[in-house]
Amino acid sequence: MSSCTASQAAWPGAASVQLSPFCKHMVAVALAAPQGAVNRFGALREHLLAQPPEALVGRLLDLAERNETLRRSLEREIADASEDDAALVRRYRRDLEDAIEAARDPGSWRSANDFAELSAAIDALSRLADRRPGPALELTTYLLDEFLELSGEVGDSEGELYELGRQACEIHLRLCAARRPDPAELAERLLDWELNAVTDLFHAIHEDYVDILGVEGIAALTRQAQELWAVLPPLKPATYDPRRTVLKAILDRFGAQDLDARIALRKAELAAPAGYLEIADMLEAAGREAEALKWLEEALWVFEDRPDRGLQGRAADMMLRAGRVKEAQALLWRVFEREPGFHTYVALRKPPDAPSLAAKAQAHLRARAETAKADRASWYSAAATLFDIQMEEGDFDAAWETAGRFTLGDMRLGQLATATLQTHRDRALAAFRTLAEDCIRRGGAGNYDAAIGWIRRRGEAKPNAAEQAAWIEDLRLRYKAKRTFIQRLPPAP
User: Fold this and answer.
1) Which one, of 262, 258, 192, 260, lies nearest residue 221 by Cα?
2) Helix (H, G, I), strand (E, B), or coil: what is residue 288?
3) pLDDT digits (tens, 9 = 90+) for 437-484
């Protein structure tokens, strides 16, 4: 128990108790401990302070003889104090290289201790930072350079390597704050880390160094970002270049003094609808809705042969807000005809004073569902969308008709049966039976659990008790070979 508050709270008579981080077993151990155990380290400290230095040195040397880790730590401290900067850097760098190599090549099997050497080396760097900050900064910079490659080469499913990298970043930041390296060189290094990182270890790392970079460093960072941005290759459709994201964030933060300058940055990224949408977002956030809509309309024209539902839906929404109802509905209808979806349907019927296209849209869905009736059911099929609309609008008669005509899946049928127990009781009870038996026939523990759920739900609806009991006994007889199911089947009421 490392928390002082929690440790005190675990003892009788504590004024306040805060046990949320601890389980009952940990609290029981604490309560069972002798009262004096709490202060054992305090008592030890007082005892050691009372001993003569020679006695303590003798005991420490005796321990160092038997403990190689302690001996090496003491020898390192001696060397740290006596070596010049160049010799110290060479020695630490050899240790770092060995630790990095051990992390990179753990052998046939990766274990929990694969990063032990690297962890120890970073701990040593942290201690060195207090005594010799100049060499420590050079070494930490080298280590973070190596992390660029190491992060992409080594599996890190548990996040241990990332955590070590984060510790190294914290040491580097602390040393930069103390040593104030050349701002332009630091800016170049930070930008290199951000541009070449394969994980988010260096994501937006320049933000942590803004005060350290100062005016000169920020100017250098901005200049370098502008130079690199100018030579980036054109963005191709359906591609992503992470360098653009990094450079754009820096230029947005420091290089673009107004909204128009930020928009100008994005003119090179209009190979996909997302570029236009981003510009529209910026303009709308600034209260320039008319300009935002113009950009969206330009995108509709540019991508006319490659229609994008997100772009069309956003443009239609802005048209509606601008009072251009007919244009918005015409655009939404084109979207709905191509990809009929629930949210597009909702948008179609949105304007209260516009002619409703709801009936036309449902007829369109019904026709598409009939055409695809023989196809395998999918979550976003035309029939499923039609059913969702009917449920949303409370048209349960139509929803039952759709459920009887098309395959919708267990979840939708169960939703309908549950919602209409009062209004369509016989159909709902029959649906629960169908759902249960379909699950039983599919087999498997998960399906059997689902079947039991449907059986119980039907029972909770209070059907005829004799009929429910007869059905359960019939299930027990017909599916007696399915022992896993029979074990789960409750007794008849």
Assistant:
1) 192
2) coil
3) 999 999 999 999 999 999 999 999 888 888 889 999 999 999 999 999
